[in-house]
Amino acid sequence: MTAATEKTHGSPEAAKDPAAPVFAVRDLWKVFGPKADRIPGNKEYAALSGAELRERTGCTAAVRDVSFEVKRGEVFVVMGLSGSGKSTLVRTLTRLIEPTSGTIAIDGEDVLAMDKNRLRELRRRQTAMVFQNFGLLPHRSVLDNVAYGLEIQGMGKAERRAKALQIVEKVGLQGLEERRPTQLSGGQQQRVGLARALAVDPEVLLFDEPFSALDPLIRRDMQEEVVRLHREEGRTMVFITHDLSEALRLGDRIMLMRDGGVVQLGTPEEIVANPADEYVRDFVRDVPREQVISVRRAMRPADSDEAESGAALAPDTLVVDAIEAVARSGEHCRVVENGRTLGVVDHSRLLAVVAGIDEGPDTTDTEGKEVAAV
């Protein structure tokens, strides 16, 4: 998914510099246990595994020395298995969980320095969270659940209900406005949770494994809903998941966590094509590479008679689509950007991607510029 930046939410200061990150996190730790503040910065403790740290100190480091930035308009996915620290991490961003040490900034403002009033404003207006357990008010209708955040902000009844109606339609709940949560399916309830978050027009949407309890087909529908909303609005999203296929489908970038630390951060293509270690390699082993890797990584230099022949493909064309193009034409295809042929892909290069074979030597385009190997 391509990050969009057409619409900027939040403070006027944020709108002045669209290149500035929304969230900037540096050296973040969250340690649970006695005298937790002695753990960050201690090289001896930092070298211990989670089990060793608990045995030595009685403390658990849920988040270990994590640094990253969330770009404006991107879907930033934090992925990891249960216990990796991802849910703790997303809660520290708005201080639902207080960090032990480190820095967190939103639009350049120090989150850790915010007083209670400013922090309340951050949670009510700048950010909104969508949880796994929906958190709907059972005695309220769909419309009143969606309007709840606006009510908390002090908006008048008529105005908030009118706005809630617009959001209900946006997430595909029209006709269900007066139903109670118990009259809805799981997918419909999660749409209400998403609509409630959208209603306050936050700069950032935070998702904490929102679809993990849903049936597979409903889950896919909700993923498509997130993709659609992001395409239409370009709103910044931080999405927590333990599901690799969900991460690859939704994320502009993925941060993979293990034992509270960051194992790898990159685009889906970077992580699948160049896993940082055996742990990541095991994670992506069963991923259909052709559905993630682009022809930019699969191409080879064009021979002199190839640079002007063959169908043209954009550099971000997925290998699975290039396979179809090559099969239809029976010849190579050119990878073209701004009218210039960067390289070509043919049967052998595309099959190498599918097989996970690095053909290594062919890593320059027709003008000698280095390109990434498969």
Structural summary, described in words:
There is one protein chain. With 374 residues, this protein is an alpha/beta fold. The chain folds into two domains: 71-95 and 114-284, P-loop containing nucleotide triphosphate hydrolases (Rossmann fold, 3-Layer(aba) Sandwich), CATH 3.40.50; 290-355, CBS domain Like (Alpha-Beta Complex), CATH 3.90.1280. Helix content is 36%, strand content 20%. It has 16 helices and 13 strands. It has helices at 12-16, 43-46, 50-57, 86-92, 116-126, 142-146, 148-153, 157-170, 186-199, 216-233, 244-250, 268-273, 278-284, 295-298, 319-329, 347-355, and strands at residues 23-32, 60-70, 75-79, 101-106, 109-110, 127-131, 204-208, 236-241, 253-258, 261-266, 311-313, 333-337, 340-345. The strands form three sheets. Strands 6-7-8-3-9-10 form a six-stranded mixed β-sheet, sandwiched between helices. Strands 2-1-4-5 form a four-stranded antiparallel β-sheet. Strand 11, helix 15 and strand 12 form a beta-alpha-beta unit. Helix 15 runs antiparallel to helix 16. The two termini are 21 Å apart. Mean pLDDT is 87; it is low at 1-14 and 359-374.
